[in-house]
Amino acid sequence: MRLNDTTDVALRIMIYGASTGKNLFTIDQIVQAYHLPRSTVMKVVNALTQGHFLTAQRGRSGGLYLARAAADIKIGEVVRHMETDFSLVECMRPTNNCAIVDCCKAISPLAEAKTAFLAVLDRYTIADIALTPIDFGLAV
């Protein structure tokens, strides 16, 4: 399995958010910390906000913060929200045109592997993968 790039960025944003504790953080801080394009960060932050993983506080002194405690946000939740396609092979897609789908023996192990992959991610939270503020050069 391979996660898409926006999911990778989403997990990094959540790690950064967890490192800030209850302090607000900004899109510009994420851009600087990870050397990512601002437009990408904005897109991912928007998705995380819509998914209720981040909360945005508007205004002059606004910023972002985790919508829930890092220990309450499972990595699997974030991955499921960000990933648009878990169809590992053609027969798992709605547009399946595979000629051997009726007799294929690969579908079951692939489906099991996908389930196991997500089950492992569900065992871990953002708190489990969080870094310290010092890792990001933030004041403690």
UniProtKB/TrEMBL annotation:
GO annotations of cellular component type: cytosol
Instruction: Give the source's domain of life in one word.
Output: Bacteria
Quote any Pfam family the record assigns.
Rrf2
Q: What is this protein called?
A: Rrf2 family nitric oxide-sensitive transcriptional repressor
- Keyword list, A-Z: DNA-binding
Annotated signal sequence range: none
**Is DNA-binding set as a keyword in this record?**
yes
Annotated GO MF terms: DNA binding; DNA-binding transcription factor activity
